[in-house]
UniProtKB/TrEMBL annotation:
It comes from Cochleicola gelatinilyticus. It holds the Pfam family Bac_transf. The keyword Chaperone does not apply. This is Sugar transferase. Keywords: Membrane, Transferase, Transmembrane, Transmembrane helix. Coiled coil: none annotated. InterPro entries: Bact_transf. The chain crosses the membrane at residues 12-35. One of its GO terms (molecular function) is phosphotransferase activity, for other substituted phosphate groups. Residues 9-196 form the Bacterial sugar transferase domain. Belongs to the bacterial sugar transferase family. It comes from the Bacteria.
Length: 197
């Protein structure tokens, strides 16, 4: 991705995330209060993710899971007992992603790009695959749209963590490399509209 494209992409992110926060800030506050009442924990969920150049940052989401003794898996599926009824609605409607507008505005993320993964995936990329670390991770992107039913897909597996590592993750890398190598701001806008509608 050229320097001019990176500048254009960042300018787009700043302007649109600012407008988005102005328009949806009240929704984020109300849903965070509801999430706190629902889970008995903080309404916002923060987790360390791998960002541009491998830097670690905290991603913000609405909390959709409660604490369940003995359940600690890092791969969440549709049948995860920790997901509350309201949390399922957050996830299905994608409202749980709204707080990531803060991440975009602050510069940790972009609207479009590879999804930010927990340490152990993106930070272990090798060779030409490390191109994924040259851009900011995104709220949505080609891999997010391709695997829009990822949780249901994982829930159908006997070993979801292994399936994620051996099948889903390599495909995401392939899709995201193609996105970066063929970048266009118009494609970004297309991915955003596909995600919303």
């Amino acid at each position: 991705m050229s320097s001019s494209n990176k500048i254009l992409k960042r300018a787009f992110d700043v302007v649109v995330s600012f407008i988005g926060l102005l328009c949806t800030g009240w929704i984020i506050i109300i849903t965070a209060i509801l999430a706190r009442m629902d889970t008995k924990l903080s309404g916002f969920f923060k987790q360390k993710r791998v960002g541009q150049h491998g830097a670690i940052f905290e991603v913000y989401k609405l909390r959709s899971m409660k604490h369940v003794e003995g359940v600690t898996t890092t791969v969440s599926t549709d049948n995860d007992p920790r997901i509350t009824r309201l949390g399922r609605f957050w996830r299905k409607s994608k409202l749980d992603e709204l707080p990531q507008l803060i991440n975009v505005f602050m510069g940790d993320m972009s609207f479009v790009g590879p999804r930010p993964d927990v340490p152990g995936f993106a930070d272990r990329l090798e060779g030409e695959d490390r191109i994924l670390l040259t851009i900011k991770p995104g709220i949505t992107g080609p891999a997010s749209i391709y695997f829009k039913d990822e949780e249901a897909l994982l829930a159908a597996q006997n070993n979801p963590e292994r399936y994620n590592r051996e099948v889903i993750w390599p495909k995401k890398v392939e899709l995201n490399k193609a996105y970066i190598n063929n970048y266009s701001i118009f494609k970004d806008i297309e991915y955003i509209f596909k995600t919303i509608f």
